[in-house]
Amino acid sequence: MPDNSGSRVLRHLTQRHGCDCVIASAAIVANCTYRRAAELTPASEEKRPLYAREIRDLLRKLTNVRWLGPLPSLSKRVRSFCKPNRNYFVIIRPSRSFVALPSKASVGHAVVVCDGRIYDPEQVAPKSPTDYSRADWEVIAYYVPWNARRLTETQDQNGREDTGNRLWDTVFDR
Q1: What share of the chain is helix, strand, coil (3-state, %, to 5)?
Q2: Where would you tag: which of 23, 44, 69, 148 has the fewest CB atoms within 10 A of its CB?
Q3: Does residue 64 contact residue 150 with C-beta atoms inside 8 Å?
Q4: Please, are residues 6 and 85 in contact by the beta-carbon 8 Å criterion?
Q5: What is the Cα–Cα distance from 30 to 54, expressed in whole angstroms?
Q6: H-helix or E-strand containing 27?
């Protein structure tokens, strides 16, 4: 069984396009820049979402940690993943009880749940489960790090390496 414990406050990033929530969330969980995550992504962030294997590979490349997933959630809600000392990369969608589903609902939306906080790249800051408007959304699937201690070490290292760098770059930097 993987060791998924570890406490961390991560830097929050926002996504740039409609299909790049995976890139932004991967950068959040790795505690690195958006640009670094985007450079390692096999697909253009504007064109399509990433496939499950591509997500797992991206997480591994950014964190130097093996990730398990996608794991089925058995229709759990986002709030049920909000536990202290836990790290999750989660794919969510509106609950089936909602009448009007957004167009991206069939694909899902990537967020990071770390130490009881939800880092949603469509939001401007991380939220607690009680303050998060999507806390009752369904979890379609989730990924967990095989070794959370190593993930924490990588997050610290990435944070030191990226000190002084902007967390995301403007279109003029390309």
Answers
A1: 30, 20, 50
A2: 44
A3: yes
A4: yes
A5: 15
A6: helix 21-30
